[in-house]
Amino acid sequence: PVPHPGLAIKMLTRTRALLPGLRRLLHASASVREEPERIRIYTRTGDKGTTSLFTGERRAKDDVLFEVLGTTDELSCAIGLAREHSAVEGVPLADQLKEIQCILQEINSCVATPATSASGPRLERTRVPESRISELETLIDSLDAQLPPLRNFILPSGGVASASLHCARAICRRAERRAVTALGQATIDPVVVKYLNRLSDFLFVAARFAAQHSGHEEQVYLPRKAPS
Fold it and tell me: 3-state class of 51 per DSSP?
């Protein structure tokens, strides 16, 4: 049966009135389905000076493990800056430096999982393999073979990429010192210290390689003459 014209007009009018609300509802539903839940940047849980390790254990923010974690994070930032400078100067180290930044994330997962509060499966999941060190040694040998023999003390120099890699090297040495302190307290895997030790060697060679590849001269240490 055909509805009465007046009734049909009323139904159409009501439907049109409901359309904007239906569109908003459908859009909101789609947004809920498509957008993943955002991770909140601040939690306020560290406002009293403590924070959590990967195991859930809470410690003071100036604990030796957080000193290692913080310095290693600083190191990754310095390497990221050096990577950008290397790209600008045409130094082909971007892939290697990015890979090292990823390994430093693994290092920090290992540091944040001390054997004193971690389960066996979690320790195994965050363990850093010794092969990471041999990979670095291979990379060091490859770059060093392309460089002239070292006969003098090198001053941090040789262009922006090279100098920034020297800065990263110095930060790496500090991260290693923090890790040695943690090692003395038996709260860190010895492979972390070994890796950071070898990484500082890589960064030194990488800085020399960057200077040579970008055509900048390295500055060497020259003893100053004693005043007469």
Answer: strand
